[in-house]
Amino acid sequence: MKKKKxxxxxxxxxIGISSIIPAFAxxxxxxxxxTNTTVQTETKKLTQEEKFEKLTKRAAKLEIDVTxxxxxxxxxxxxxxxxxxxxxxxxxxxKKDAKVKIKAAIEAKKQExxxxxEDRAAKLNxxxxxxTGEEARDKIRKAEAAxxxxxxxxxxKEEAKEKIKAAVDAKKQExxxxIKEKxxxxxxxxxxxxxxxxxxKIKETRQSTKATTNSVLK
Length: 218
Description:
Residues 1-25 form the signal peptide. The chain is mostly helical. It has a domain at 142-217. 64% of the residues lie in helices and 0% in strands. The chain has six helices and no strands. It has helices spanning 37-61, 71-86, 95-123, 133-148, 157-186, 195-217. α4 packs across α5. The longest helix is centred in the C-terminal third of the chain and has 30 residues, at 157-186. The two termini are 27 Å apart.
């Protein structure tokens, strides 16, 4: 009996692109001259604080601590963490060259994620043309839930992902059990094989058995 293909788990993140967009904004330079020195200083300080707040949020996504660091030190630490997460070696590179190398790696990762989203959408017959990555994920998530018979109404994205993952795992287990049952009936060992490999072995065994039977009948 032909098996239905089991849906893959919603993309999580192979790497979350939002967590590795580099924090490479240049340090805020001097502000335009003004007759009010106090206002100038406060404005500059606020800008630095805002920048550090953004760096802190980026660092949190990368699970690194930038407490007590200057903006430049935090940026350097984040850059190193991003490079590590992307598998990019920036040893000995200048800041500029490191930025270029990391940016190229991020673009490649974005393209990879986009292709995976498009492939997943195509399998679900979902149109994601013109959607952002986040919008496409949401639409795909809903389609996967519907196909699995899972209700994710009112759930947060994380809760929906967990519920869909649990349903996918249950479906995979169900398929695995059926494959084992078929293998047992055919007297073949599928230990250590993936479901795909097991199916292939079962198919080959059936074809071989059929060929042998036909040969005997002749």
